Amino acid sequence: MRIERTCFWSMLQALALLPTMALKDAQMTTKKFSEEPEFERPIGNHTFFLGREAVLGCAVTNLGKHKVGWLRAEDQTVLTMHDRAVLGARYSVSLDAPRTWQLRIRPLRAEDRGCYMCQINTQPNMKWQIGCIDVYVPPDIISDDASGDVSVQELENATLTCKATGHPPPKITWRREDHEPILLKKPMSRDFDKVENYVGSSLPLWRVDRRQMGAFLCIASNDVPPAVSKRITLLVNFAPTVKVPNQLLGAPLGTDVKLKCYVEAYPNTINYWIKNRGEMLLDGPKYTIREEKASYKVSMWLTIRQFSRNDIGTYNCVSTNSLGKSEGTLRLYEIKLNSYQEDFNQISVAGGLTEAAKGDTSNFLHSNRIFLCTLCLFAYLYMFT
Ligand SMILES: *[C@@H]1O[C@H](CO)[C@@H](O)[C@H](O)[C@H]1NC(C)=O
Ligand SMILES: *[C@@H]1O[C@H](CO)[C@@H](O)[C@H](O)[C@H]1NC(C)=O
């Protein structure tokens, strides 16, 4: 180390920046030892951003005829000598503040992180001090999977992973793109914890549920703006499941009847209606077929116009996707109008009998109709008198 430093100063002398005679004269005319050059203050450790400029100051008093040089501490590479740069265009030295030699590095690279030495060519021992710079690098996400999609079967495990570079090491935060909470299965439980976000480079999802499907954002941030994010879509594949809110529907002849099914499935389904286990129903003057899709949920409606005796029977909503097929069953029957009910036409379409009420429900309805309508009448009278 010492040899190299000596080397450095020989080089300096060889460049005639510092004639040997002058140095000797200076030493001879320096009467007092207290007039030796001194560092005014430590260089200190500093942080700079990648691509910007790093500035380290070396403040010296009583320099006299001595010279100041900057070296990279790690390998003793000379960067500047007195007032000129020796190595490369990125380094420069300026004497901005009084008696302060400022080493400037621009544009700053990650490999400039490290310690720098300010030296004074005092004899016989050179004086030196060290200061270090840290180079802050904004976060960047490493994409090894361009699509960013993760596709699993329901109840399989899935892990969403995001790797990021940057300095200091970025923090990875996960959240859902739709701002809904992230569902995390509690260990050994069917329940979920709801969290706004999750911190960690991997988001482990145990026995994935369809409700966890969606677009996630992994956000990498450190002290250097801007934070960056990547979108990763979790696709949960499962065969259709069909729910029928009203399995038994009664309607008076001549009315329009609306049948409804709820489907859940992914990937996308093909949905249709069949009547009496036979013909597939088509949208037209008799039937209106409609469906509405929101992520993995589909609502299916079949409206039968001008309900007639021919329409009495069994209807199925059928849903298929690449993973399977499922169907719901609805039974449609006629409600015979009597004199009471004609008064309350609008409330006489009896829907809303669910699975529990299945069985011989039509008899039940018949025997209770009088009773129910008496109740209706009382309610009616109560409201309007
Ligand atoms: C500056 O940083 C170096 C290396 O990281 C460390 O050894 C030194 O103690 C630090 N000095 C100060 C004053 O913090
Ligand atoms: C899912 O992960 C759990 C625990 O990490 C493990 O016990 C289980 O075998 C995994 N299931 C599958 C289908 O890989």
From TrEMBL:
Keywords: Cell membrane, Disulfide bond, Glycoprotein, Immunoglobulin domain, Membrane, Repeat, Signal
Top-level taxon of the source organism: Eukaryota
SUPFAM superfamilies linked to this entry: Immunoglobulin (SSF48726)
Subcellular location: Cell membrane
UniProt cross-references to InterPro entries, sorted A to Z: Ig-like_dom (IPR007110), Ig-like_dom_sf (IPR036179), Ig-like_fold (IPR013783), Ig_I-set (IPR013098), Ig_sub (IPR003599), Ig_sub2 (IPR003598), Ig_V-set (IPR013106), Neural/epithelial_adhesion (IPR051170)
Ig-like domain mapped to chain residues: 37-121, 139-233, 240-331
SMART domains linked to this entry: IG, IGc2, IGv
Primary location: membrane
Pfam assignment, any one: Ig_3
Signal peptide bounds: 1-22
GO cellular component term, pick one: plasma membrane
Protein name: Ig-like domain-containing protein
